[in-house]
Amino acid sequence: MSKVFITGASGFTGRHACEYYLNKGYEVYGAVRHHQQPRKQVQQVNCDLLNAEALSDILKSIQPRFILHLAAQNHSGRSWEDPISTMNTNVIGTMNLLEAVKKAVPQSTILIVGSVIEYNPCQSRYPNHPYGLSKYMQILVSSSWSTFYDLDVRIAKPSNLIGPGNSNGICSLLAQKCLHYRKDKSKTFHFHNILDHRDFLDVRDAIVAYDLILHKGKKNHSYTIARGETFTFLKIAKMLKELSHSDLPLFTEHFHHTPEIHFENSSLRQLFWKPTLSLQESLNDILEYFEDH
To answer: Which positions fall inside the NAD-dependent epimerase/dehydratase domain (predicted)?
Structure first.
């Protein structure tokens, strides 16, 4: 039975990843910072990525075949408030993991999950936020360690992941507000610009992509994971209001069209991946999750 070690196992994506690999028959080790069981069958590992020595001992003991690195500070707004913590988690934590892999399980395959909104020095002189800078540095370090030490590192850059579960993403926050408004008419939702575009992808489709990259991807290669279609916040809001039978009031500071951004994901499609869940299915599952909880 193959072993997979998943960092950030108690998070939004981590919980879905644990369930996916359990269903595929893997021996799943879920790394969490606090005592939070991702799922009963998951073998929980209390692990702080900033403790390099302990991390190396953990990997030496487990000897995983695959490592899925999901642990991160993924909120751009929070990165303004605490840039040091963001850098420590996303950059130093990743470096510690790579060093632990080098020492304990150099034969393993590791997938580093970055972001499509990382800073791109070819497009802009300065990053938009500390989060984007941290993800750029995370990927730079990962590619460098792969080259320096001949590690089998692969890189995924997902777009905005949505789906059922506890998430701080805009779709989940808006869904909760729509449901609450049916009981509390004082609820409203505020946008900076309601006509901004985003590429929204179901987290369950993303995990299938992660698995494909781990098994069939190329060493030190980067894969963009996106639906390939963008939607305005206004479109998302209208769909959620209709699906939830809610008339939640919406407010926006700006109401102007922004250029659509399309992410090129041909490398991933060469692995015969494509999204299977429609936007409506994802939004409906989000609403059902919060109605049940």
So the answer is: 4-226
Q: Across the beta sheet with 3-7, what order do the strands follow?
A: 43-46, 27-32, 3-7, 66-69, 109-113, 152-158, 222-225
Distance of CA 131 to the CA centre of its chain: 13
pTM for the structure as a whole: 0.95
d(CA 181, CA 186) in angstroms, rounded, equals 7
Cα torsion 179, 180, 186, 187: sign: negative
Amino acid code (one letter) for 55: L
The per-residue b/e assignment along 217-239, b for 16 or more CB within 10 angstroms, e otherwise, is beebebbbbbbeebbbbbbbbeb
What is the second-level CATH architecture of the domain 164-199+228-293?
Answer: Alpha-Beta Complex (3.90)
Q: If you classify domain 3-158 with CATH, what class do you get?
A: alpha beta
Cβ proximity of 223 and 267 under 8 Å: yes
Pairing of strands 197-202, 230-232: antiparallel
CA quadruple 33, 82, 70, 135: dihedral, nearest 10: -150
d(CA 283, CA 194): 18
Buried (b) or exposed (e) across 98-129, using 16+ Cβ within 10 A? bbbbbbbbeebbbbbbbbbbbbeeeeeeebeb
| Strands 160-162 and 197-202, sheet pairing | parallel
Other C-beta atoms within 10 Å of 61: how many?
A: 10
| Domain boundaries, given as residue ranges, for the chain | 3-158, 164-199+228-293
Residues 37-51: pLDDT tens digits?
556 789 999 999 999
Using alpha carbons, list the distances in angstroms from residue 186 to 34, 130, 170, 239, 250.
36, 34, 19, 21, 12
Residue pair 201/275 in contact (Cβ under 8 Å)? The answer is yes
Task: Express each pLDDT in 145-158 by its tens digit.
Answer: 999 999 999 999 99
